[in-house]
Write a structure and sequence with these properties.
heterodimer; A: about 575 residues; alpha+beta; 7-stranded antiparallel sheet; 14 helices; about 30% helix; globular; B: about 700 residues; 9-stranded mixed sheet; 6-stranded mixed sheet; 17 helices
């Protein structure tokens, strides 16, 4: 491990290089947003960008998808093992196979080597979630596949660009195997353009500081993040902290899928995170590769640290993660993994439950439990193929000192949403509502955020609907006496008949049918009877909490206009009222 | 041209900032008079009146001699930041009352579980729904239930709303329901102030359009109150000249437009400086510029190309300091109106330096402001700022600032840096001061990168024009970080934004959404859109007294590849030629992103019109005559530490007037009453005309 000598020699240049790296990765990310073709990338922003050093350690990550950050090392290792020494400037390698370092098939990684003289100095990395990579279901994201071969085109580390030119054999192969080739090829080009921006800007840093010195600063940046991480963990109370949470089911059986964690805080400022006791790998596609399990473990710890630690691989060095082979958190091939993001969210929820025992002043109650994915694919009235991959985000749980946020990305992502008008303009669908679900926030001194609802009416003759959602059975947990959030729900409405459908399902929708999704609400934090009566009244006034819920969950007597009955509230909040 | 009455020929620019209100009075012969007075936050009009009174006195003019007042106001931005806007209601399509609160879901940072999402400007209780629905193709899915609108109005009135915004889904394609609902609201509650989204700028994306309409409605009561109050105050003073307001796009708008569409003036203050820099650059033959404005709390950067400020068509207005990176959204209020593309970072003279837990030197965004200000002011703080670093290194006069009006103590700066930076980092005080300066410079360079590198422009091709209290102190070092070789220092740097407003043109912006394939546009559709915008433009300018001959139209088109959702804006001519537009789009795309797939189908998203009112009386920097105070300054020598680790060098102290006689080689320092200009070694400063100073750099790596 390089020590901090380089940093201490010249703290000023170190600060300068750090800021420059942050700017560069953000410029790379911005290029993706501006040049991508699919809503999932340009509107929802399901992509990430990073710069790695020559050894593949991530030196800087853009403010994009947190879940991707810990998965880069494995993919990078696979790429370097196959391609080191065989690359030149302008080449780019892609990979998506989860068993070759990827995460799930729609996420195509692109690695572009950045040279200093004849040597690789760094790598520009851009990961995009592609709209479709083939397989049995539009969107290639189905939760109900049972082996990886059903999930689409598997790409081991292959060279897609040769000195700036897309490979003549690979391009048609990819295009032929996906449902929306224009978008996929367009987004791959966007990834390449963004990587080139990274190379150009790193080149400028090399011109300024020289490659040798820049390498030293990369080492110093990693050491800096590691040192800050260790220093902070060393202040945590040593011991082992356990927590368990669960996924409703894998969709094939009704069996819950439990996740169990034991987090050990060591006095040297490192953490041991052991997932022993978690479910065996499952039939459905919610298995999480070990790299993805690590990624979500890292980001959970990162959330418990101060905000000003750089997002780089130095943080990972302080955290040992293990999960037994053959579990849902470290599956054997050819287990299906397309919908593994769900398991990633639950990894974070479980980690938060353990971390809340260590740093209770930082960790919130459980949020919605991960975004819901709605995939609708078919042919539009002009017989052109369409695929909608829409993600419905949710809310955060109540926090130790404030309410949970409503309508917000999961902390493990940094997703946006697709504007209703954009979706309707491009696809045969009409969104009939998009709003908050009253009373879905878990009661607490600090209330959990409300869940979101979104409804889709199909305007094409027929479409395949593939839905991935969870927390229909097991609601987001509360903390410190706070109540759980409201559960999620899915319904299909045909001719005014509304029927509930499962959390994970692939089915057919007909013209005019309406899909309604309610996202789960966040758990509450602290005793609801300790919530300020004014805050409850404000929630009632704004239609976020009903008059009845204010009375039963919070012991607050208030009318629909938010006028408090103070004496009745006092009565309700005394022991007799509670009983 | 616009009529100007004989004898009434003084024009006054007013820039109300957070700390100071700057007033500049310009006469046609090039004489200018400036005043800096303390801003009066509770009633900004008071400070404006004081400042105007002062410049009139200095110039020996009568209030009736004032022909026009151009006003950059922070009323709109402060109203949002301080949440002091009107009680505002929102009427939406049924099912979408929460669009405003949901926003775009993202967070500006990562891993921060304590983050607070900005509160919507309209609480949920006042967000009501009307039964209606327009489809994406403009067809009516469900007719407007007028009764549902009337019920909503009743609630708005009962809840004592002052203003209401209306924004329906897909109204950018078909605004019939939205207009009808607005008419019903007007009819049922004539006293409610009203903004329909289609009357601001009708573009696709419901959240952005709703947010823009809501901000506009929210600002209506405050802006109207302020402008009426200001007009009254000026009338008491005897000034009856028309008031123009600076808009975020660097143009002026009449007071009537500002009263109806205050959302166009949210970026009013900083726009004046950029508009002025653009005009100044034209006078100097420097049509392409980086504009760099460093104040006490923040530094701002913008680009001028071909003599025009670069414009964005949407931006996020946020509390505190803007992150310079453009895709980090979620921290503020989205405004889909044209604005100068200004990147702002939290580095200014008052930015505080500290060491973080990992041993990293951090500068800003916390600022000591003007009170207590930097440690050298001796007003009770010992936290070191960028100004203190400049003090320790010898860049600033160690005894007094602002032409001798502000006493300072350099020893206090030294002590502050020693305690808080040098000792923890085991550096000398000088090295620590260099560090603070350099970290601040890198932050400021990042703002410039955001408007150049992120836009595919190479800053090395451009000249940096600096102003603001701190701009001339840091300009050369910031330029060097970016490989820029030429710096211009504006005249009256400390009050340049106010002066710049006097150079701005009147501009009204219009847009028509089309969203059609560029290669298959129905006959005449663009021409019809242009004709209808022309009519709107003539009407708006006609109301402000511009004759037909004084009106100039500037057209542009928003184009993207099919499937993208970000677009590039390219200039077009009135006789729209689709293949030419496609070619121009591909050129711009290649410049911006470094690659292009030639021949790929593109989509025409919007056509835009900027209707410009021309007038002769705009400030002519070529005729500018600086007063004696600006040209005088201390002379002699001062030891200055320019380079970390090297010995101090004696820097020549020169008065600005001396530069008119001969160029001066660095190291030198030019002190004047409103700023200090640093000419480092290996640089040469010379008079560049129009009161500017040019600093040319030899190839040299700092």
């Amino acid at each position: 491990m390089p020590d901090a000598t380089a940093l201490l020699d010249d703290p000023i240049t170190f600060a300068v290089v750090k800021n420059a790296m942050d700017a560069i990765v953000d410029e790379v990310a911005y290029t993706v947003v501006r040049t991508a073709r699919s809503e999932i990338v340009k509107d929802v922003m399901d992509f990430s960008a990073a710069i790695c050093d020559a050894k593949g350690e991530m030196v800087a990550q853009a403010k994009t998808i947190a879940q991707h950050l810990g998965a880069i090392p494995e993919a990078m290792a696979a790429v370097r093992a196959k391609w080191n020494g065989k690359l030149e400037s302008g080449d780019a390698i892609i990979v998506n196979d989860p068993y070759s370092g990827g995460m799930h098939l729609p996420d195509i990684f692109m690695f572009l080597p950045i040279f200093d003289g004849g040597e690789i100095l760094a790598w520009a990395v851009v990961i995009c979630h592609h709209t479709d990579v083939g397989g049995r279901v539009p969107g290639s994201n189905a939760a109900d596949s049972t082996e990886i071969f059903q999930e689409g085109l598997r790409i081991p580390p292959l060279k897609l660009f040769h000195a700036g030119v897309m490979d003549e054999a690979l391009e048609p192969l990819i295009a032929l195997n996906v449902r929306v080739p224009d978008r996929v090829i367009g987004d791959l080009r966007a990834q390449y353009a963004a990587c080139q921006v990274g190379a150009r800007e790193i080149g400028r840093l090399v011109a300024r500081y020289g490659g040798q010195q820049l390498r030293a600063y990369f080492d110093a940046l990693l050491a800096y993040a590691e040192r800050m991480t260790r220093a902070e963990i060393a202040t945590w109370p040593p011991g082992t902290y356990r927590f368990a949470d669960q996924i409703d089911s894998d969709g094939f059986s009704d069996d819950p899928v439990p996740l169990m964690v034991a987090v050990t805080v060591r006095e040297d400022g490192s953490l041991k995170v052991d997932w022993d006791g978690s479910s065996k790998q499952v039939k459905a596609a919610i298995n999480s590769t070990l790299s993805f399990t690590k990624s979500n473990t890292f980001l959970s710890v990162r959330c418990a640290l101060r905000g000003d630690i750089p997002s780089n691989a130095g943080v990972f060095r302080c955290i040992d993660v293990s999960a037994p082979e053959g579990t849902v958190l470290n599956p054997h091939p050819p287990a299906a993994v397309a919908a593994r993001a769900l398991t990633g969210y639950r990894v974070m929820d479980t980690m938060f439950g353990a971390l809340a025992q260590i740093v209770p002043h930082i960790i919130p109650a459980a949020g919605e439990g991960g975004n819901t994915v709605v995939c609708l694919g078919g042919r539009d009235p002009d017989n052109q193929p369409f695929i909608i991959v829409d993600m419905i985000s949710g809310c955060w749980g109540g926090r130790p000192d404030q309410d949970g946020i409503e309508a917000i990305t999961n902390p493990s992502q940094n997703l946006s949403n697709t504007p209703v008008e954009v979706l309707e303009r491009q696809h045969p669908v009409r969104i009939e509502d998009y709003g908050l679900v009253p009373d879905s926030g878990g009661a607490g001194k600090f209330r959990g955020g409300l869940g979101l609802r979104r409804s889709y009416r199909l305007l094409a003759d027929e479409a395949i609907l593939q839905l991935r959602s969870d927390r229909l059975r097991f609601p987001p947990y509360g903390l410190n006496g706070g109540k759980p959030g409201g559960v999620a729900g899915n319904w299909l409405v045909r001719d005014d008949a509304k029927r509930a459908i499962p959390g994970k399902v692939t089915t057919t929708m007909q013209r005019g049918e309406l899909l309604i999704h309610h996202q789960a609400g966040g758990g509450g934090h602290g005793d609801p009877f300790a919530r300020a009566a004014d805050a409850v009244a404000r929630d009632v006034r704004n239609g976020k909490v009903s008059v009845a819920a204010a009375r039963t969950h919070y012991g607050v007597a208030v009318d629909a206009d938010g006028t408090l009955d103070e004496s009745e509230t006092v009565r309700l909040r005394t022991a007799s009222g509670r009983a | 041209m616009r009529e100007t009455r004989v004898g009434r020929d003084a024009r006054i620019g007013v820039d109300v900032g957070g700390t100071f209100t700057d007033v500049v009075l310009a006469l046609p012969d090039g004489r200018i008079f400036v005043n800096k007075t303390t801003t009066t936050p509770t009633d900004p009009g008071e400070g404006v009146a004081i400042g105007i009174g002062a410049v009139l006195g200095d110039a020996g003019l009568d209030p009736h001699d004032v022909a026009e007042i151009v006003h950059g106001t922070t009323v709109a931005s402060n109203t949002i930041l301080q949440k002091t806007g009107g009680r505002t209601g929102l009427l939406t399509t049924a099912g979408f009352r929460d669009v405003l609160e949901i926003g775009r879901i993202r967070t500006p940072g990562m891993f921060n579980l304590a983050w607070r999402k900005p509160e919507p400007l309209v609480p949920r209780r006042w967000r009501l729904e009307a039964s209606e629905r327009i489809a994406a193709d403009g067809g009516v899915v469900m007719p407007l239930d007028e009764e549902s609108v009337r019920r909503a109005v009743t609630t708005f009135v009962t809840e004592q709303a002052e203003a209401v915004a209306v924004c329906f889904i897909n109204s950018y394609v078909n605004d019939a329901h939205e207009r009808r609902a607005a008419a019903i609201i007007r009819e049922c509650a004539p006293s409610l102030l009203l903004t329909a989204s289609c009357d601001v700028l009708p573009e696709i994306k419901e959240y952005e359009r709703t947010s823009t309409a809501v901000v506009n409605a929210y600002l209506l009561p405050a802006m109207r109150g302020y402008l009426s109050n200001l007009a009254e105050r000026l009338a008491v003073l005897g000034v009856t000249a028309p008031i123009q307001v600076m808009a975020s796009n660097g143009g002026m708008i009449g007071i009537e437009t500002a009263r109806d569409r205050p959302v166009f003036a949210v970026g009013s203050g900083p726009a004046g400086g950029v508009a002025g820099a653009a005009r100044l650059g034209l006078n100097l033959g420097a049509k392409d510029l980086i504009v760099f404005d460093m104040g006490g709390t923040t530094a701002k950067a913008a680009i001028v190309e071909g003599g025009e400020p670069q414009i964005v068509t949407e931006y996020e207005f946020r509390d505190g300091i803007s992150a310079p990176s453009r895709f980090i959204k979620g921290a503020g209020y989205m405004l889909k109106v044209p604005a100068i593309d200004i990147a702002e970072v939290g580095s200014g003279g008052g930015s505080i330096a500290r060491i973080d837990a990992g041993g990293l030197l951090v500068v800003g965004p916390e600022s000591a402001g003007g009170d207590p200000g930097p440690a050298c002011y001796g007003l009770g703080t010992d936290l070191p700022t960028v100004t203190d670093a400049n003090m320790v290194l010898g860049f600033l006069n160690p005894k007094s600032l602002a032409g001798g009006s502000l006493r300072v103590d350099a020893e206090l700066s030294r002590r502050a840096i020693e305690t808080h930076v040098a000792r923890p980092l085991r550096l000398t005080v000088e090295d620590a001061a260099h560090g603070i300066r350099q970290v601040a410079n890198v932050n400021m360079a990042r703002a410039i990168r955001a408007v150049t590198v992120e836009r595919g422009k190479d800053p090395r091709d451009l000249t940096l024009m600096a102003f603001g209290g701190g701009g001339p102190l840091h300009a050369v070092d910031v330029a060097r970080l970016l490989g820029i070789r030429r710096v211009l220092i504006s005249p009256v740097s400390g009050v340049f934004s106010a002066a710049g407003m006097l150079a701005a043109e009147t501009i009204h912006e219009f847009v028509r959404p089309l969203l059609l394939p560029l290669a298959a546009l129905p006959d005449g559709i663009v021409q019809r859109a242009i004709a209808s915008m022309n009519a709107d433009g003539r009407t708006a300018l006609g109301k402000e007294g511009y004759a037909e001959t004084a009106v100039q139209f500037r057209y542009s088109a928003d184009v993207r590849y099919s499937g993208q959702s970000s677009q590039l804006t390219v200039p077009i001519s009135a006789c729209f030629d689709a293949p030419a537009v496609h070619a121009a789009f591909e050129r711009t795309y290649l410049e911006t992103f470094g690659y292009v797939t030639a021949g790929e189908p593109a989509e025409l998203v919007n056509v835009r019109l900027g209707a410009i009112g021309k007038a002769n009386e705009r400030l002519d920097f070529g005729a500018l005559q600086l007063d004696a105070r600006a040209l005088a300054g201390e002379t002699g020598q001062r030891p200055v530490s320019f380079i970390r680790g090297a010995a101090r060098m004696p820097a020549l102290l020169v008065a600005r007037a001396a530069l008119d006689k001969a160029p001066i080689a660095g190291p030198a320092i030019v002190e004047s009453y409103d700023t200090t200009i640093v000419v480092p070694p290996h640089c040469t400063a010379s008079a560049a005309g129009c009161g500017c100073i040019a600093i040319e750099m030899e190839a040299f790596d700092a």
